[in-house]
Design brief:
By secondary structure, this protein is α+β, with helices and mostly antiparallel strands. The chain is built from 4 helices and 10 strands, in the order αββαββαβββαβββ. 35% of the residues are buried.
Length: 202
């Protein structure tokens, strides 16, 4: 009986230490975009793509995406292409470029609903983001290809509101409008506005 009592006391003494063990940090975050076309929720892979995810969340937390638009739609086929949104290089909203995280490094793929950071040369990505409609392996890094084969940096996916993304994608585009002289034939006639972009509680 004495032995049993001693074991019980030892267990009780050890319990507070076990209870105080810090929980592992979350490997994802969720962001809600409240838009003029409806709500979109994005799961951000902070563990797999830390640099690219942190960049996106920086724009969210500073509220620099509030009031911005889905300003570009690239339609390759039915439910295949991408939509693009971001700060459009506005001087008061843009942060410095970030290091490129290719999909060969993160393990993420450009599947239907994947969000990635638009770029020119690797390492030039800043505050423009694309959401894929349909699986698009051509956006993934491929070391077997010649030239710039590092693809876009995927960092999450849409987990709620793909119907809203499809609504944006299917909306009419202007044959003449451009953004800073580019993207002719890809500018929506009535761009969807992002009212707010906010992190959701875990």
């Amino acid at each position: 009986m004495l032995r049993g009592l001693l074991l019980l006391i030892a267990g009780l003494l050890a319990f507070p230490a076990a209870a105080q063990t810090p929980a592992a940090p979350p490997t994802t975050a969720r962001v809600a975009l409240e838009t003029s076309a409806g709500r979109i929720v994005i799961e951000v892979e902070t563990g797999k793509a830390p640099i690219t995810a942190r960049n996106f969340l920086r724009y969210v937390d500073a509220r620099r995406l509030d009031g911005m638009q889905f300003y570009r739609t690239v339609k390759v086929a039915d439910h295949f292409g991408f939509v693009q949104f971001g700060v459009q290089n506005a001087p008061a909203r843009i942060y410095p470029p970030i290091k490129h995280e290719p999909t060969t490094q993160t393990g993420l793929k450009h599947l239907d609903g994947t969000i990635s950071t638009a770029r020119f040369a690797p390492g030039s990505a800043r505050g423009e983001f694309t959401i894929s409609l349909g699986d698009q392996p051509s956006f993934d890094a491929d070391p077997a290809k010649p030239g710039d084969n590092l693809g876009y940096a995927a960092f999450g996916r849409v987990v709620e509101g793909m119907d809203v993304i499809l609504k944006i994608f299917d909306a009419p585009v202007s044959p003449d409008k451009t953004v800073q002289g580019g993207f002719k034939g890809e500018i929506p006639l009535a761009p969807v506005k992002i009212m707010t972009a906010r992190r959701l509680p875990l």
